From TrEMBL:
Cofactor: record remark: Binds 1 zinc ion.
A GO molecular-function descriptor: metal ion binding
Cofactor: Zn(2+)
Transmembrane portions of the chain: 25-46
Family stated for the protein in its record: Belongs to the peptidase M3 family.
Pfam families: Peptidase_M3
GO biological process, one term: proteolysis
Species this protein is from: Linum tenue
Keywords associated with the record: Hydrolase, Membrane, Metal-binding, Metalloprotease, Protease, Transmembrane, Transmembrane helix, Zinc
Protein name: Peptidase M3A/M3B catalytic domain-containing protein
Sequence ranges assigned to domain Peptidase M3A/M3B catalytic in this UniProt record: 229-638
Keyword Iron on entry: no
Length: 642
């Protein structure tokens, strides 16, 4: 911690220097990093008035196409489909007794790696383009490509070739075996094939299955997939599962409902003491203001807000003045460099789709190897996607000749540009959001899987948010807050020590009660998707009293309407967010809290957890990194820090 504080002091001194050099993220750590940072901090200034030049250069290793017109997008989509058909025809023509990895599986894997960036070139314009025609063409291109993918998934001739190789069992390595497993249907314990409610599975069965009763069962199951919960259970059982929850969890890290229930009950029980104390505080506030009127669930957020206003000296509007976007980004790059050994360097004179877009290349800090590229499209504008997210534009993968395709990511945000020459100032929530999304950027760039199918963020859905949630932890540490902050009119003035402490305490303010409410939703979701003939109103009443410490649900309300928007579309998987938070907390507390910029541990996380991607089970990756199975205890302990 003393080393980190020393870096902050030197960094504050560096803020007094200015430079007109182009932005370049330094390739040093420790004392050397501080010295070079002192001379280069201003290199992160983001200008919104870049002039386009006619001699734009391309990015090394990039297959992503930029600034395609509407007609060019559609033509590229058609070429993608034609090339894909050509390769699949070639694979399908291989005699079954002459099938090898090289003349079948390798060709399809290489095609997938080659075309991923081209497909994304067609699709990402719908998120960022200023042109409505281009956005419409992007949507149409997606429709054409999806239709082709569906047609390929139904090809019996391709299936026979893949099956022939699978039967041989001539795996080149465990990752190749996992890849081939993804191309064939799985079997259950009874050796029956599993059919998932995906359009490519369903259409293939309806078109090709000779057994009429099977076609009917599958058609009925698919037709009822969006109906009532009981219908979800029915179609899950048609596929051999006990209930819908077991079906939904089969391909997730949690695996079974029993494990999810144990997980949620364990956390809920551990939080009861803290949550009871928090609720008592809120009830006292209401009693002082309203007398003996009972405290209801409708009072929860109001009195939390009242209590926070009283106990935390935090003016978030004033705090915004200390987070100019360029300074925050410089700090994020510094943290990522020191932790994970990634050096980001801005590449100028590169073709982009809007003057606000910046491009960075990411290099390995030790070897200098180019690992990937990053596009930053931070500011809101008409027609642009309205949320903050990271898109993989090109995934890291190995080609047949052993060369590696580099990763490329696009970070989209909706920040408001500063007016009349003033810098863009971030709300603290936007600072946290940027740290979160850069966790996804690191996840994308550090992936070293052999196959595109396991690369980037194509990992277990219960795992995909863990690196991003892990990164959020650094936002609340005093040394890092001072690194990324500075009053916008004098950036040598970071936020005060007391403010740093208040932000950390505010993070966990009434966190046990808030989490209890989330657990309530998760338990309700898991039960209704695990049991038959549930009276959802009575169930919700029972759970509400039990989980929310005796607070009754609001009479006359529909339990389904109480679910937050983030839960919609996650039937039987609402637990996933808490699941990811728990594992992220365990990683941070166990490996980083004592030494925030521990380069050795950061490199271990990069190599052991991020590099394999989806090629290995995430629980195996985390267990190897932690030296034990993940635990909920660190998460429970963190809730008591306020």
């Amino acid at each position: 911690m003393e080393e980190a504080q020393g870096e902050v002091v030197a960094t504050e001194q560096s803020k007094m220097k200015s430079s007109k050099q182009r932005r370049n993220v330094i390739a040093f750590t420790g004392g050397a990093a501080v010295l070079v940072l002192a001379a280069n901090l201003a290199i992160y200034a983001f200008s919104s008035h870049r002039k386009r030049k006619s001699d734009k250069k391309g990015l090394q290793g990039s297959s992503v196409r930029i600034n395609l017109s509407a007609s060019e997008i559609l033509k590229l989509a058609d070429r993608i489909v034609a090339k894909s058909k050509q390769v699949h025809d070639a694979v399908a023509s291989v005699p079954l007794d002459k099938v090898t990895y090289e003349n079948s599986i390798s060709l399809m894997a290489d095609l997938e790696a080659e075309q991923f960036a081209l497909i994304q070139s067609c699709l990402f314009p719908k998120f960022v383009s200023d042109s409505e025609d281009v956005r419409k063409a992007s949507v149409e291109a997606e429709r054409r490509i999806d239709a082709h993918v569906l047609a390929c998934s139904k090809r019996e001739d391709l299936y026979r070739v893949v099956k022939a190789f699978s039967v041989k069992g001539d795996w080149t390595n465990p990752e190749a075996k996992q890849y081939i497993k993804c191309l064939s249907l799985e079997k259950d314990a009874g050796r029956k094939y599993k059919i998932y409610m995906r359009s490519n599975h369903i259409v293939a069965v309806l078109e090709l299955c000779k057994v009429g009763q099977t076609r009917k069962r599958v058609a009925v199951a698919y037709g009822k997939r969006c109906g009532q919960v009981e219908q979800r259970h029915k179609y899950a059982r048609l596929l051999g599962y006990l209930n819908f929850a077991e079906f939904a969890l089969d391909l997730r890290m949690a695996k079974t409902s029993a494990k999810v229930f144990d997980f949620l009950e364990d956390i809920s029980g551990s939080l009861t003491h803290l949550a009871t104390r928090e609720l008592s505080i809120l009830k006292d506030i209401k009693k002082n203001e309203d007398g003996d009127l009972p405290f209801g669930i409708e009072d929860l957020l109001y009195y939390i807000k009242r209590s926070e206003a009283k106990h935390f000296d935090l003016d978030f509007k004033a705090l915004k003045q200390f987070f100019p976007v360029d300074l925050v980004l410089s700090g994020i790059f510094k943290v990522i460099q020191d932790l994970f050994g990634l050096r980001f360097e801005e590449i100028g004179n590169v073709e982009v789709w809007h003057p606000d877009v910046s491009v960075f290349s990411a290099f390995d800090l030790t070897s200098g190897e180019l690992l990937g590229h990053l596009y930053l499209d931070l500011y809101t504008r008409e027609g642009k996607y309205g949320h903050t997210c990271v898109l993989a534009l090109q995934n890291s993968a190995l080609s047949q000749d052993g060369t590696r395709q580099i990763a490329m990511a696009l970070l989209i945000s909706r920040l408001q540009k500063g007016k009349e020459g003033n810098p863009c100032l971030l709300r603290f929530s936007e600072v946290v959001s940027l740290f979160h999304e850069f966790g996804h950027v690191v996840q994308n760039i550090c992936n070293r899987a052999s196959y595109t199918r396991f690369s980037g963020m194509r990992v277990d859905p219960d795992f995909v948010e863990i690196p991003a949630l892990l990164m959020e932890n650094w936002c609340y540490e005093s040394s890092i807050l001072k690194l990324i902050s500075g009053f916008h009119q004098d950036i040598t003035m970071p936020i005060k020590d007391e403010t740093c402490k208040s932000l950390k305490r505010w993070r966990y303010s009434f966190s046990s009660l808030k989490l209890k409410q989330e657990i309530l939703y998760c338990l309700f979701d898991q039960i209704v998707h695990s049991a038959d003939n549930v009276d959802i109103v009575e169930l919700y009443k029972h759970l509400h009293l039990k989980v929310m410490l005796g607070l009754p649900m609001l009479e006359g309300t529909n339990p389904a309407s109480c679910f937050p928007r983030s839960a919609i579309g996650y039937e039987a998987a609402c637990y996933s967010r808490i699941w990811s938070e728990v594992f992220a907390a365990d990683i941070f507390a166990s490996k980083f809290r004592g030494n925030l910029l521990n380069h050795q541990v950061g490199i271990q996380f990069r190599n052991q957890v991020l590099a394999p991607g989806g090629a290995k089970e995430p629980i195996e990756l985390l267990t190897e990194f932690l030296g034990r199975e993940p635990s909920v205890q660190a998460f429970i302990d963190s809730q008591s820090q306020h």
